[in-house]
Design a protein that fits this description.
By secondary structure, the chain is mostly helical. 62% of the residues lie in helices and 0% in strands. It contains five helices and no strands.
Length: 154
Amino acid sequence: MNIIKNALLATTVLAAMSAPVLAQDAMAGHDMSAMGGSQAGAAELPEICKSAKGMSSDMSMNMDHEMDQAHMDLMAGMDETNKQMMDSMMVEDIDVAFVCSMIPHHQGAINMAKAELEHGDNQWAKDMAQKVIDAQEQEIADMVAWLEGEGANE
């Protein structure tokens, strides 16, 4: 059973790792750390999510061309949330790993939505951004509550 869990976890990690690699190719050369990507917009994860050995190493996004502030803000915080997501996937219990990795995933969506609210000019897009923030914040709260309750017993 443990072999099946490990195989499933490895498959999940490999699939998740391909997205940042593709993003790196698309944004090669840009150093996101200047935009606050190191700690900006990162959610504080519950201790249960920090029990895994890190898999993310240095997955920072680099880019070759200049960006305006709106696009920099859209991307800010994604480096750290991607790292947290990758590290959280390595928690031994798959249910806990899933929930732990979803928290930074949702935080990334919140970060992007906040950039839309600050810089966007289309009312529909701004309304959607606010809906994303409201929904994702509630789901993060639900996930943290599960991790501190039932998830702690997994």
